[in-house]
Amino acid sequence: METNQVFTSTVNLLRLTYGLVPIVAGLDKFTNILTKWEDYLAPFMKEMLPFEAGTFMMIVGVIEIVAGIIVLVRPSVGGYIVAAWLTSIALTLLASGTFLDVAVRDLVMAIGAFSLARMAKAVHK
Fold first, then answer.
1. Which molecular-function annotation in GO is an example for this chain (predicted)?
2. CA 124 to chain centre
3. Considering the entire predicted model, what is its pTM?
């Protein structure tokens, strides 16, 4: 396989991964099948909300679904959006001192999403 084909197929794999995973996670904010998402919300953030934590997580779910769709349609833009989103989640978890393993995982995933955006930009030149 040629280098360009490998590069393009890698971008496509990353596009599907960083597109579908946020969509699935976003949809799950409405069902809590994978986990109880509001448990990941820092206590100080729950106190600041003018509504229930579950409602906030549904809003987060909509944002994640939109971000995933953008990645699928335009990975050179969506990759940056998902990278920023994952970084903000990780920073919130780090600030709360909880779920540090998830924070590290999200930072690593953010690096992957950032890499997708850069690679997608190169492929579409």
1. methyltransferase activity
2. 22
3. 0.91
Q: Do the beta carbons of residue 29 and residue 57 sit within 8 Å?
A: yes
As to burial, measured by CB atoms within 10 angstroms (0-12 exposed, 13-18 middle, 19+ buried), residue 57 is: buried
Determine contact, residues 99/40, Cβ cutoff 8 Å.
Answer: yes
Alpha-carbon separation of residue 104 from 79, 98, 99 (angstroms)? 18, 11, 9
Can you spell out the DSSP letters for 91-111? HHHHHHT--HHHHHHHHHHHH
Quick: pLDDT tens for 77-101.
999 999 999 999 999 999 989 899 9
